[in-house]
Amino acid sequence: MRRTLVSAGFGLALLAGCGGGDSPVAPGPPTGGATPTPTATPTPTPTPNPYAAACGTPLPNPADIYGYRIKVQLEPSRNRKILNASPQVRNAAYCAAVGLGGTFCNTRLETDPQREACDHYLSGVSDSGRPGPNWYQVVNDQNVRCGGLGLPSEGAACVLKEITQYMIDITAPGKYRACSASGSCGVCVIEESAWGVIHPSPAGICKLDGN
Hints:
Layout: H1 2-17, H2 50-55, E1 65-77, E2 80-90, H3 92-97, E3 104-105, H4 115-123, E4 134-139, E5 142-145, E6 158-160, E7 167-170, E8 174-179, E9 185-190
Antiparallel strand pairs: 1-2, 2-3, 2-7, 4-5, 4-8, 6-7, 8-9
């Protein structure tokens, strides 16, 4: 009996020495703390529009821009006129809120100190890098750019004013177009009969042709 127990014990020891018994345990993760959680990339904060802030309340909705009202601002000579464009808002509630009334209106009253910023906000930035409209002379139903301030001149009879993007000098009758950055435009047609004359009140000599 003792021999049997000894033999059995010897056999178990031999099995253990030869790799018998339980299967090997896979190694666990390294010690030293939990796996770090990846850090989420923060979403960039949008840059606020400085013209919106300066315009204040009510702020015109860019979706409500309805082209430009263009007038002859000045006639420095018989063969030169200065055109001036004002962006128009098509929103009766907005027009009433700024004290202008009607279905279409300027962004603010002419004397309102917020007017310039509101015009800038509605117009966007032109190709010259300044806020305001892009200007074109219309030749054979094609827009040709009024140059100046680093932009090449394509239109022979128009050039940008240095003091503001909302004005151009013209040196011939014809059709001129002002367009916002979003592509909403207004036109002024100066007829041959209105050229070569200094008018007592030139603001009304711009004609519209629906284009």
